[in-house]
Design a protein that fits this description.
The chain is mostly helical. The chain contains 19 helices and four strands. A hairpin with a 2-residue loop joins β3 and β4. The termini are far apart.
């Protein structure tokens, strides 16, 4: 009996109840959770997935890898059915969730983030436009006609996970404003990539399906304007929106962005209203708690806790909650799965030099490495030269140059565009993926070295 009481006492510490193994689990999980939340971790995971995909595609597992991603999966409900390969389910289905999170980030940045103040946003916006335009022009100059010309959108995109991961490795040596600059630049870059996909990589439009999709998006806006803050109606309509865009010919992943833009970004309660509500409920909580301290027996206590939970949700925006809850699943499951399904490129070492010298690979490489550097650094220099903008606090121009090299890491979004551009051109698709991986690797190393050298001495105060 004494042992049992001792165990019960050990399970309670300062009003906190611990399950028998909970403390042991916490000692294991807490360091893992901290590792997961580090900025560099996502980039490291993507790199590992890319390496694994390359190993699978260039080893005895190549046939298994190819058959796996080409496995046909169908969803059937009565006489209705939708059939796609695993590869297409990943690219069209899972990536819609990636674009949903991208859309939420875009909306937040436009409303209250780095893109909300035009004076602060002018430099990263203009730099991003330069960083998209110059690479596309370089690629198009090298590949002006034929099937290869469709790939001009590939060197425009920056992979924010890889770029931030590389920058996070030396985050202690660079000012926080430089990281903010890269984030804002990459957000504008994502918006540009989404626009390019919607306008230039859409074929055979089915107007009737597109009209229905437009009506569904309008319904989402009605939900927003009507003050609906429950996720379920948005989720149901967004699934139908995704399906109708699939039928329309517009790439279905854009449903993620449209759905994100319709999610409410205003809370039910403002912070002061929530503060008053909490104080009132806590007075009731103390009074009820005196009568029965066991919440399983005290219905009033449980009702008060539920009200607190509801209030805590109401003081946050739905978009804020969704962005927070979906960030880790997208960063650590969806994008790695996409990379694993798309980065497996068979390499012929004997002909690797010829592959990298191919106009498609050359256009991608020069676009990402030279084009991003010239576009971002050049536009930034011109704006600074004419006094239209100022450098972010404590940031040197040489650090802007280093970030422009990191922006040449064009992996996830660039590979996505490659799949759209060369869907029926297997040889060009393999060449473009090879060029993307080598160019991104070079840009990442060059940007890291440049920033390391540029940040050797303390930033000016």
């Amino acid at each position: 009996m004494d042992n049992k009481n001792k165990q019960d006492d050990d399970s309670i510490h300062d009003g906190i109840f611990y399950a028998p193994w909970e403390k042991t689990f916490n000692r294991i999980l807490t360091p893992f959770e901290e590792f997961i939340h580090r900025q560099a971790t996502s980039g490291m995971l993507l790199m590992l997935m890319a390496i694994l995909a390359m190993i699978l595609a260039n080893s005895g597992f190549s046939e298994f890898y190819s058959q796996l991603i080409d496995t046909s999966i169908s969803i059937d409900v009565g006489s209705w059915g939708l059939e796609k390969t695993l590869h297409h389910w990943v690219n069209d289905g899972l990536m819609a969730l990636f674009f949903f999170v991208v859309g939420l980030e875009l909306k937040r940045e436009i409303l209250v983030g780095e893109l909300a103040d035009m004076r602060k946003a002018m430099l990263p916006i203009a730099a991003a436009i330069g960083g998209m335009t110059v690479p596309a022009l370089i690629y198009f100059f090298i590949n002006p006609e034929g099937a290869a010309a469709r790939g001009w959108g590939m060197p425009m995109a920056t992979d924010i996970a890889f770029a931030l991961g590389a920058l996070a490795l030396i985050s202690h040596r660079v000012p926080k404003a430089l990281i903010t600059f890269l984030v804002a630049l990459a957000i504008v870059d994502d918006l540009g990539a989404v626009t390019v996909i919607a306008v230039f990589y859409t074929e055979n439009i089915a107007l009737d399906a597109l009209a229905v999709a437009g009506g569904l998006f309008g319904l989402l806006i009605v939900f927003n304007r009507g003050g609906i803050r429950n996720l379920t109606p948005y989720l149901i309509v967004s699934i139908f929106l995704w399906y109708m865009l699939t039928l329309s010919g517009v790439h279905a992943t854009l449903a993620g962005v449209l759905a994100a833009f319709s999610i409410p970004a205003t809370p039910k309660y403002n912070p002061m209203r929530f503060n008053r509500r909490v104080k009132y409920l806590m007075k009731r909580f103390e009074f009820s708690h005196e009568h029965d301290k066991n919440i399983m027996n005290n219905d009033e206590l449980r009702a008060i806790v539920c009200s607190l939970e509801s209030g805590a949700q109401s003081v946050q925006t739905l978009s804020q909650r969704l962005e927070h809850s979906w960030h880790i699943p997208v960063a650590y499951i969806i994008i790695p799965v996409f990379v694993l399904a798309n980065a497996g490129t068979p390499l012929e070492l004997a002909s690797l030099s010829d592959t990298l010298a191919h106009p498609v690979a050359l256009g991608i490489s020069l676009g990402l490495i030279v084009g991003k550097f010239v576009g971002i650094t050049g536009v930034s220099w011109l704006l600074l030269r004419f006094g239209l903008v100022r450098l972010p606090k404590d940031v040197r121009f040489t650090q802007i140059a280093g970030v422009s090299l990191l922006a040449g890491i064009g992996f996830t979004m660039s590979m996505f565009i490659a799949e759209l551009a060369f869907e029926h051109q297997e040889n060009l698709l393999l060449i473009s993926k090879t060029g993307l991986m080598f160019a991104s690797l070079f840009a990442g190393v060059a940007g890291f070295v440049c920033l390391y050298v540029a940040s050797r001495s303390p930033s000016p105060q």
